[in-house]
Each structure stands twice: as structure tokens, then as C-alpha cells.
Automatic annotation (TrEMBL):
Source species of the chain: Mycolicibacterium aurum
Family matches, as PANTHER family: SUCCINATE-SEMIALDEHYDE DEHYDROGENASE, MITOCHONDRIAL (PTHR43353:SF5)
Catalytic residue positions: 267
Any one biological process term the GO annotation gives: gamma-aminobutyric acid catabolic process
Family statement: Belongs to the aldehyde dehydrogenase family.
Tagged with keyword Oxidoreductase: yes
Protein's UniProt name: [NADP+] succinate-semialdehyde dehydrogenase
Entries under PROSITE patterns matching the protein: ALDEHYDE_DEHYDR_GLU (PS00687)
Domain of life, source organism: Bacteria
One MF term in the entry's GO annotations: succinate-semialdehyde dehydrogenase (NAD+) activity
Coiled-coil residues: none
EC class name: oxidoreductase
Repeat listed as a keyword: no
Signal sequence coordinates: none
Length: 498
């Protein structure tokens, strides 16, 4: 297995994929899994097998954590500028290979190339942002109230980290964790999702080329996540877990973290309300709905899951949205004209169809879509459901697909009650032209982020994260690095008589 050495990378996709190492990255070396076990990576648009990737056993996982633990002391002592420059080089390399990385991602995950290029740029921004933050880690210096002691507060890396990422944004969810960990001086074991290992492996190569020392980043792909990760969590050696994925798995990890009292950051599921007030600009609201619903084919934690539209404009909004959704070109993401790619796998698509069927049986009308297409690939048509009943299962379940359920409402108190009637609280969207209403309703929404007259909230400079069962902690922004740092306070008595 060899790493790509040329930049820019080959444009021929298959050549490009062939250049990605398929092993486990442990202690700076690419290795096979114990017993030579591998698993296959599939293109969800065609079913084509793209690669066979090493399938780590718990013993491989243990070796990876040992490498991270061994590298931690010297990595913690590196100069912030050195860590900063590694990240900055990685940013430059990711951007130089934007098209190639986008093709790899589209091949294994399905999103259209244009979106994949956008994700590469978004992911790269975390490398650049945290390269800038690495040299700004600061502490505090003060005196006790009685003037007898100095209080010196320093920041230290939390220690070896367990990073677990999902398949829906395979590059950005990686850099959103790796970059602050590198900036803070932490080592790490990364377990990517098994549907999308190639993007993570390509990123690991870039970080190696950028000068990241051996053992700082260890990459462990596996089809046995529960066993591999449980040992990391129980080891007492890993000091932090940062997870992005479903709320169910997040709760399992939090229980495990309790046993060794590990620092935990959780970016979990969502059930985003999208509220369109009667005074909203309809064009802006429909644009926002397209962005909030159709980004990543609806396979996003930030996806608008419930569209509450004031009754006076619900029909007009639904019709315009249905027209825009029906006009989208569905197809293989590698085709430049494709606007909507396939869903990730058969199980993901079956869940979407089940939720749509349930809503239709409870009285909703499909203005467009709603039926499974024939043919290969896990495609699902963009779908708008009007007059969705409040007891439909998709009101309480993350649909994770291109389905927009529209529910009319009559007054603000009613819509805030409906919006907050969920265990989740990641993001909400609000459309109104009245600034007082915008602030008032934003404050009443139980969420970590609000898009006001916009369907996009994600930005590396902003603190991303949720409340309630959508998670703990924030990624990005000024606070993103805090998740990887501990405080240490030195009590130093002042000399008496001076
Ligand atoms: P998932 O099933 O929870 O899986 C996420 C990751 O956890 C995968 O790498 C998975 O590997 C691993 N995993 C599963 N069981 C595990 C266990 N017992 N111990 C350790 N790791 C385990 O979620 P997903 O289906 O990949 O992703 C979709 C979910 O992620 C949605 O709920 C979405 O809202 C959420 N998400 C949240 C954010 C955010 O920032 N809040 C961003 C993106 C996605 P295996 O697949 O091998 O089990």
C-alpha cells in the first residue's frame, strides 16, 4: 500500500481510488488487519464494489490506542506553531485535491459532485480555522481575594481521544474533530463509518504528508464498531470521546464513558422544525426550504424534518416547494448534472418509504414523489407531503431522506409548542420579515442553532451543536478547541512582606 505522492491527484477516479491505502493506520504505518480480514465498500448509486478495506479486530483497535497513548507526551509538548503549520499544510493539500476528494466521496456515499466539492471546502475550513486557533490557546493569571496567592490557569491537551464519525459528511465530520484535537495537542484513534472509509483514509494520507508525526492520528476501519470501541472506552487510557452519529449510539457511549469518567462530546440526531410565518417572504422561505431539506439528499442532522407553515400561505408554499423538488435531477452523483444522488443503503431507503407510507395512510397528500423508483441504486424521489397529520411517525423520527412534510399552523404559541415537542434540539429554522418576531421566536425555540431566513447554519467559525438529546458540547467556532483542553490551575503563594 502506498500513499499518493503527486499533487494535484489523478483525475481518473478509479486510479484515484486505487491510490488510497486500504489498511489500518497505526503508529504511522499502514497495516493489514489481524488475519487479513477486509470488508467491501460499495457505490450506492450502482452497487459497484469500489475497494476492499482492512477490517479491524478488537486487537487491532488496542494496538491503535496504544500508539496514540505512546505518542501523547511528546505531541503535547510540540510548539503550537508546529501544530498550526501542519494543519495549514493539510488545508492547502485538501483544497489542491478538492475535485479528487469529491469524486472519492461521491463514489462511496452518493452525494452529487457539486455538493461533495462543497463539503471538501467546508471540511478544509476546519483545518484552516483550527490552524489559526492552535496559536491562540490562552490561560489566566490573577490573585486570590485575600491577595495571598497567585492563581495561574493554564490549558493542557485532554489526552488521547476516541473520534467516531458517521457516513453522511465523511470528510467534514472528520476534520471537525481531528483539527481541534491536533491544534490542542491531543493524539487520537479515529473510527470512520464503514460505508465511507475511503474518504477518511485519503484524509489521513494528506495529514501524513502535512507532517503529522507518527501515532498522532490512528485510523481504524471496522465492521465490529461495538467491540473495538467498547475496549477503547473501558481502557482508562483514552481520556475523551467525540462522537457524531445517532442519539441511540451516543447514549451507549455516554454509559461507557461514565465507567471511566471520560470527557464526552456528542453531536447527535435532530428533528428540526422549519417555521414559515404568515409575513415571510415566500421566495426566501422556499429557497431556505430547498437548502435545509435537500442538502445531502436530506441525510443531514440539520435537515428540516417538520415544516410548519402558517395556514394563510401553506398551500402556496407547498405548491412552490413541490414544483422546485419535482424539477430536481435525480441520478448517479458522479454525473455532473445530478442534483440528488442515492440514499446511503437499502435500510436507509426502506425507512424513508415506511415513514412516507405511514403519513399517507394518516391522510397526507403527496404533491410530488412518494414512490420507490425501479432500477438499481438506492434512489428516492424528492417528495413533498401536504396536510401531514401530527400523529404521523415522521413527526417524531428523523426521516434522513428527501421528504418535506408540510403542517399548517394558526398562531405563534401553537407553533412554538409543536416545534419544541420533541426530545431533540439541534437546529430550528424561522422565516419572517419582522425582526422582533424573529428574535422572540428564536429565543423560544429549544435548540442549539437557529437559521433566521436561511436554510444553512453550518460554518467553521460558528459553534455547532444541540441541546436536549441532540448532544453535548460544540464543534467549531471559538469554543471548538475547548472540548480538547483541560484547565490546570497553579496556586503560587506571594512572598510575604512584598
Ligand atoms: P450511527 O449508526 O449512530 O453511526 C455513527 C458511527 O457510530 C458509525 O461510525 C458507527 O459504526 C458507529 N457505531 C455504531 N454503533 C457503535 C457502538 N456501539 N460503539 C461505537 N461506535 C458505534 O449513525 P449514522 O447512521 O452513521 O449517522 C446518522 C446519524 O448521525 C443521524 O442521527 C444524524 O442526525 C447524526 N448526525 C449528527 C450530526 C451532528 O453534528 N449533530 C452530524 C451528522 C450526523 P457502524 O456503522 O459500523 O455501526
Amino acid at each position: 500500500m502506498t500513499a499518493p505522492t503527486t499533487s494535484p491527484c489523478p483525475t481518473a477516479l478509479r486510479t484515484g481510488i486505487a491510490s488510497i491505502p486500504t489498511g489500518l493506520l497505526i503508529g504511522g504505518r499502514w497495516r493489514e488487519a489481524v488475519g487479513g480480514k477486509v470488508f467491501e465498500v460499495e457505490n450506492p448509486a450502482t452497487g459497484e464494489v469500489l475497494a476492499a478495506v482492512a477490517d479491524a479486530s478488537p486487537a487491532d483497535g488496542d494496538a491503535a490506542l496504544a500508539a496514540a497513548v505512546a505518542a501523547q507526551p511528546s505531541w503535547a509538548r510540540t510548539a503550537p506553531r508546529q501544530r498550526s503549520e501542519i494543519l495549514r499544510r493539510a488545508y492547502d493539500l485538501v483544497m489542491a485535491r478538492q475535485d479528487w476528494l469529491a469524486e472519492v466521496m461521491t463514489s462511496e456515499m452518493g452525494k452529487p459532485l457539486a455538493e461533495a466539492r462543497g463539503e471538501v471546502a467546508y471540511a478544509a475550513e476546519f483545518l484552516r480555522w483550527f490552524s489559526e486557533e492552535a496559536v491562540r490557546i490562552s490561560g489566566d493569571h490573577t490573585t486570590t481575594g485575600d491577595g495571598a496567592n497567585r492563581i495561574i490557569v493554564t490549558r493542557e491537551p485532554v489526552g488521547p481521544c476516541v473520534l467516531i464519525t458517521p457516513w453522511n459528511f465523511p470528510l467534514a465530520m472528520g476534520t471537525r474533530k481531528i483539527a481541534p484535537a491536533v491544534a490542542a495537542g491531543c493524539t487520537m484513534v479515529l473510527k470512520p463509518a464503514p460505508q465511507t472509509p475511503l474518504t477518511s483514509l485519503a484524509l489521513a494520507v494528506i495529514l501524513q504528508e502535512s507532517g503529522l508525526p507518527e501515532g498522532v492520528l490512528n485510523v481504524v476501519n471496522t465492521t465490529d464498531a461495538a467491540a473495538v470501541v467498547e475496549r477503547w472506552m473501558a481502557s482508562g487510557k483514552a481520556r475523551k470521546v467525540s462522537f457524531t452519529g445517532s442519539t441511540g449510539v451516543g447514549k451507549v457511549l455516554l454509559r461507557q464513558a461514565a465507567e471511566t469518567v471520560m470527557r464526552s462530546s456528542m453531536e447527535l440526531g435532530g428533528n428540526a422544525p422549519f417555521i414559515v410565518c404568515a409575513d415571510a417572504d415566500l421566495d426566501t422561505a422556499v429557497d431556505g426550504a430547498m437548502a435545509a431539506k435537500m442538502r445531502n439528499m436530506g441525510e443531514a442532522c440539520t435537515a428540516a424534518n417538520r415544516m410548519y407553515v402558517h395556514r394563510d400561505i401553506a398551500a402556496a408554499f407547498s405548491q412552490r416547494l413541490a414544483a422546485r423538488m419535482a424539477a430536481l435531477k435525480v441520478g448517479n452523483g458522479l454525473d455532473d448534472e445530478t442534483e440528488v444522488g442515492p440514499l446511503i443503503d437499502a435500510a436507509g431507503r426502506a425507512k424513508v418509504q415506511r415513514l412516507v407510507d405511514d403519513a399517507l395512510q394518516r391522510g397526507a397528500t403527496a404533491l410530488t414523489g412518494g414512490r420507490l423508483p425501479d432500477g438499481p441504486g438506492y434512489f428516492y424521489p424528492p417528495t413533498v407531503l401536504a396536510d401531514v397529520s401530527g400523529d404521523s411517525e415522521l413527526m417524531t423520527t428523523e426521516v434522513f431522506g428527501p421528504v418535506a412534510p408540510v403542517i399548517p399552523f394558526d398562531d405563534e404559541d401553537e407553533v412554538i409548542t409543536l416545534a419544541n415537542d420533541t426530545d431533540w434540539g439541534l437546529v430550528g429554522y424561522l422565516f419572517t420579515q419582522d425582526i422582533d418576531r424573529a428574535f422572540d421566536l428564536s429565543e423560544r425555540l429549544e435548540v442549539g442553532m437557529v437559521g433566521v431566513n436561511t436554510g444553512v447554519v453550518s460554518n467553521p467559525a460558528a459553534p455547532f451543536g444541540g441541546v436536549k438529546q441532540s448532544g453535548l458540547g460544540r464543534e467549531g467556532g471559538k469554543v471548538g478547541i475547548d472540548e480538547f483542553l483541560e484547565y490546570k490551575y497553579l496556586a503560587v503563594p506571594r512572598r510575604k512582606g512584598h
